[in-house]
Write a structure and sequence with these properties.
This protein has 236 residues and is mostly helical. It is 68% helix and 3% strand. It has a single domain, classed as Helix Hairpins (Orthogonal Bundle), CATH 1.10.287. It is built from 8 helices and 2 strands, in the order H-H-H-H-H-E-H-H-E-H. It has a two-stranded antiparallel ribbon. The longest helix is centred in the last third of the chain and has 34 residues. It is globular, with a radius of gyration of 18 Å.
């Protein structure tokens, strides 16, 4: 089933992107390649209609169109200088909408599974990692749109956003230190709250709150789906 293949591919890409953030400084930009592959995998795996819908194939086509737009916006944002803030705004809107819709479709697909299998568990984990990585990407975009949105607890804000060699304001976005803001995104998602990175602006603070709420909501929904599937199988 294409949806099952999507679960394993999505999980593999998410894990690969996270591994790239642990590479030596100057090499973690490789994770951007994985980021740009995510929309393509999602479109292929989750772009098919689920069940009978009253609007026919229109939502299916809109979903694919939004995914393509998110992919292109990410590509443009990655290649533009940090100071071109308009591309970050567009990416924030398109990626946020696409991944939000994708998460709902993924949860709906999990709810239609007859039993809790290895593929289903991979899909549930992939969805959680996708939300965390998307939050990290959007935090990075927000920092380019509103510089100084995040800082370290010791006040060294430059370490949050700039990687070695990115001090020039005309440097491309791919030189950003994505590891720090992805780390902070997962801290928010899991509601751990270490406190070593602080959101300063109202936008950053509300984004952080939203990520925390989305993380707990996703876990509650997925756990409910998996438990209901497990009980249904064991009851048979």
């Amino acid at each position: 089933m294409r949806r099952h293949r999507c679960y394993s591919q999505l999980l593999a890409i998410c894990l690969a992107v996270m591994v790239t953030f642990a590479l030596p400084k100057g090499l973690n930009w490789i994770g951007l390649v994985g980021y740009n592959l995510l929309p393509l995998v999602i479109i292929r795996g989750l772009g098919e209609p689920f069940g009978q819908r009253p609007f026919g194939r229109v939502p299916h086509r809109l979903f694919r169109l939004l995914g393509i737009a998110a992919f292109l916006s990410s590509l443009v944002w990655t290649l533009t200088p940090v100071t071109m803030r308009g591309t970050g705004v567009l990416m924030l809107v398109l990626w946020g909408g696409f991944v939000g819709w994708s998460s709902l479709r993924l949860i709906r697909g999990l709810a239609q599974e007859p039993e809790v299998s290895e593929k289903v568990l991979m899909g549930a984990l992939a969805g959680y990692l996708l939300v965390g990585l998307t939050a990290g990407l959007l935090f990075s975009a927000l920092e380019t749109v509103v510089p100084g949105s995040f800082t370290s607890a010791n006040g060294s804000g430059a370490a949050i956003i700039l990687a070695p060699g990115a001090e020039d304001v005309f440097s491309s976005v791919w030189k950003i230190n994505f590891m720090r803001l992805n780390y902070f995104a997962f801290v928010c998602l899991t509601t751990v709250g270490f406190g070593d990175i602080v959101p300063l602006t109202p936008q950053a603070q509300m984004f952080s709150v939203a990520v925390s709420l989305i993380g707990t909501t996703y876990l509650a929904l997925v756990m409910g789906v998996l438990i209901s599937r497990y009980r249904g199988v064991s009851g048979d």
